[in-house]
Amino acid sequence: MKNDKNYMIKVAIVEDNNTIREGLAALISGTNGYDCVGTYIKCETFLEDLPGKDIDVVLMDIGLPGISGIEGVKKAKEIEPGIDILMLTVYEDNSVVFEALCAGACGYLVKKTPPLRLLEAIKEVYEGGSPMSSNIARQVITLFQQNAAIEQENEEYKLTNREKEVLFKLSEGNNYQEIADALFISVDTVRHHIRNIYSKLHVHSQSEAVAKAIRRGII
Amino acid sequence: MKNDKNYMIKVAIVEDNNTIREGLAALISGTNGYDCVGTYIKCETFLEDLPGKDIDVVLMDIGLPGISGIEGVKKAKEIEPGIDILMLTVYEDNSVVFEALCAGACGYLVKKTPPLRLLEAIKEVYEGGSPMSSNIARQVITLFQQNAAIEQENEEYKLTNREKEVLFKLSEGNNYQEIADALFISVDTVRHHIRNIYSKLHVHSQSEAVAKAIRRGII
DNA sequence: GATACAACTGCATATTTGTGTGGTTTTTAT
DNA sequence: ATAAAAACCACACAAATATGCAGTTGTATC
Hints:
The structure is a homodimer.
Chain A: E1 9-14, H1 18-29, E2 34-40, H2 43-49, E3 57-61, H3 69-79, E4 84-89, H4 94-103, E5 107-110, H5 115-126, H6 134-152, H7 161-171, H8 176-183, H9 187-201, H10 206-215
Helix pairs in contact in A: 3-4, 7-9, 7-10, 8-9, 9-10
The first copy, chain A, binds a DNA duplex through residues 160-163, 175-177, 185-189, 191-196, 198, 204-206.
């Protein structure tokens, strides 16, 4: 079974620290169902080797010499958009986390993660999950909730569907006549709706209305 | 030690299924460091009981009769904004997950989660984490990456600082004269900048420019 | 010292917008 | 049934905008 390719998750490792890299490789290759198909000291060599190579999951250190792990994720995703990359890091620092996730990493673990949990995480990535330490998950969620909170504020600014349609058309760069034509109404009616939008949003120009509406998630 | 309040995480359970509720209560009360301080069949009774009660973490079923778990989260957060709520669910369904998170839940577990992992998750919540199954984490991350991808596209749309200033003033509802006064430049210069903005963003009106800029995170 | 770019100024003018005032008709909720 | 609310239409006019053209000045890169 150990050599049955159908049951193997093919893992590559990019990590400059020899001890950690070899430890990870041994752990992975020594576990049933996992196969370490490449170890790299630098992103550069990994990226050269990547094209055509059959890799399921990459473990990538974030603090690498030369091309950083974050840059590495971007470039790897350009070469193989489908590849799944799990970041490993010593820091649990806010900005770096988000940079990595935005770059395309699909999970984020701190290096002190115990071996069993690491293997589990690799499997989760392979199966479409996004393992992360729960501190990081909390940061991600906090951002979500902030965005959600803003959307609640808009109870006062209730626009009717028609008004939203008009406002949206405006934001697309249509002028009154074009909006009228698109909605099969007269220009004066468009004018009327815009008047009401202005009064509801407490604004006096298209730009201000559009800005407010977008920032509050109305359109 | 079992009765040392300093080391106890106080947990409340809201769950309509008797077997599950009692099972959870037994698990929690039977584990060192955890204390089940309340079990509720319905959100309504939980919410009545909540004010003044000392609860660290709430386990809340999402599919409750009467007030749903999601509504329950919202109301509980209104009463005790600091309370941490961990959602339990049978579904791992996209929209429900996001609704719950946006409502203020700070973690999300499927009911089949093994007892030990559940206890661990409660502790993580207590310590400020956001445990979630990694499928859910992936959904959250996917959304992030979509947002991030949009921001990359803007390389072509590079506006100078001055142009951004002007555009931002526009989005605040200022007209050309007001912008000119604010930036100590002439109206014609404002006009000039706006011309350049339009040509860089490929638009032909204030509204479209403002909409595009905001949606792409330029301003 | 040349080329490029950002930032600036000026003027002309057709088109578009914002706002005033005054309505009718159709849905929706009580 | 009746009162709101939403959606519709019209006319008028000052103010603001979009876009044409034609420049100067300062700063940075090659």
